[in-house]
Design a protein that fits this description.
alpha/beta, about 40% helix, 7-stranded mixed β-sheet, 6-stranded mixed β-sheet, 2-polyprenyl-6-methoxyphenol hydroxylase-like FAD-dependent oxidoreductase, FAD/NAD-bd_sf, binds flavin-adenine dinucleotide, FAD/NAD(P)-binding domain
């Protein structure tokens, strides 16, 4: 009977798996490369089926207490004039039960449910895999019954067990950068978006934060050397209007600068022998899908549940996890390319037309209903899975 499970990565997916494995009577160990759990971060959405997972995990109330409470979203023009404004939930594509929260707040809540029950090892990582024998960067070697890679889009576990990421990580042709900036616009739980050809810039403030976040979403910067991401961002956004120059200045000092290709992970199989993949490592849908967090939550719950249902027989469990999860993951992955095309417009004609349409729409009485209709594919995809009840050994880990 499988008992010990090594999980690589204390992100949303890995922490959800750890929680549910404990409740099913397994003994998970979590190894996380970062020296400590990271707080804060960007805002993420919990939608549809994932809300039910959060409820069963016992943290729904706390998630709601820590919601970002972004009350309004607006598109601005070059001079900063609000061209279109909407309420925050319509703007962010959230339905009544969905919740938006900072990624770090969610991981903190998940972590707290198991911090005394699970062996968490921060500042370490898997260096080598030989069957079920794991050598860590710290030098120690140990054996586990199973190993789960929940270590994100650039998963090291995937590389060790399945091969180089070039075979699985598909570049969508865009870049994303995000960091904390001073809230010099004095935003109070508001999100502003400025769109120019191939370059979209967002700034938002969330409840309880004195700083703001700036996010840059843009087409692959042809001819720009990306070895220094801050410089690459500066060059890609040179000559942009609105508050962009001021935001770029702030980027230079940001302590938490993140820059990556927008990418999706596609694999024929999510397991190989005793190793399985979960979350972005297996089926990253990209930040543009708005569903990565929900996929991590649902996947973690299902993988633990199927291991319990199969009495620890990992071959049966991995096959059942993949059979349930794959159609859901693939449906949500389809949202990514469509969304990014709506968010990053390719020509000035497209930008002008979109501004006019948004301006008209935001003044119509039925604007929230129209926005909801536009978001229908997202909500359908977010709900396109049933969350089974798996018998647990304990109510709480
Ligand atoms: C800029 C940005 C904006 C986003 N916006 C949204 C959004 O609005 N809505 C939404 O739903 N999702 C959003 N996402 C996506 C979402 O954050 C991810 O899809 C989700 O967090 C996936 O969770 P995960 O646990 O699979 O991976 P991750 O969150 O990437 O966690 C992986 C963990 O593994 C650790 N790790 C990495 N390598 C190793 C290693 N070798 N050994 C040990 N540990 C390792 C990492 O430090 C990290 O803690 C966004 C992502 C980004 C980058």
């Amino acid at each position: 009977m499988t008992k010990t499970v090594l999980i690589s990565g204390a992100g949303v997916a890995g922490l959800t798996l750890a929680h549910w494995l404990r409740r099913h009577g397994f003994t998970p160990t979590v190894v996380e490369r970062a020296p400590a759990l990271r707080d804060g971060g960007y805002k993420v959405d919990i939608r549809g089926a994932a809300v039910e997972v959060v409820r069963r995990t016992g943290i729904l109330e706390q998630v709601r207490e820590r919601r970002t409470d972004v009350r309004a979203g607006a598109v601005v023009d070059r001079s900063g004039k609000r061209v279109a404004s909407m309420n925050g939930d319509s703007f962010g594509g959230r339905e009544e039960h969905d919740a938006e929260i900072l990624r770090g707040d969610l991981t903190r809540l998940l972590f707290e449910t198991t911090r005394d029950e699970v062996d968490y090892r921060f500042g370490d990582a898997i260096a080598a895999l030989d069957g079920t024998s794991v050598t860590f960067s710290s030098g120690r070697t140990e054996t586990f019954d199973l190993i789960v890679g929940a270590d994100g889009v650039h998963s090291r576990t995937r590389e060790l067990a399945f091969g180089p990421e070039s075979g699985f990580v598909h570049d969508m042709g865009y870049r994303v950068a995000i960091c904390t900036v001073p809230n010099h616009l004095g935003l109070d739980r508001e999100e502003l978006t400025y769109v120019s050809p191939g370059r979209t810039t967002l700034v938002y403030s969330t409840a309880g934060q004195t700083t703001a976040k700036a996010m840059f979403l843009f087409t692959e910067p042809a001819g720009i050397d990306e070895s220094d991401p801050r410089r690459a961002l500066r060059e890609a956004y040179a000559g942009q209007g609105w508050e962009v120059p001021r935001l770029l200045e702030a980027v230079a000092d940001a302590p938490d600068f993140y820059y990556d290709r927008l990418a999706q992970v596609r694999m024929d199989r999510w397991s190989a022998g005793p190793v399985a993949l979960l979350g972005d490592a297996a089926y990253c849908a990209s930040p543009a899908s708005g569903q990565g967090t929900s996929l991590g939550l649902v996947g973690g719950y299902l993988l633990a549940g199927e291991l319990a249902a199969a009495g620890g027989d990992h071959e049966t469990a991995f096959a059942a996890y993949e059979a349930r999860m794959r159609p859901f993951a693939e449906r949500n992955q389809k949202l990514g390319p469509a969304n990014v095309k709506r968010m990053v417009l390719s020509s000035s004609g497209q930008v002008r037309m979109s501004m006019v349409m948004l301006g008209v729409m935001s003044r119509l009485p039925g604007r929230d209903r129209m926005m909801a209709a536009m978001m229908a594919p997202l909500h359908k995809a977010a709900n396109a899975i049933e969350i089974p009840d798996y018998a647990t050994r304990s109510q709480h880990p």
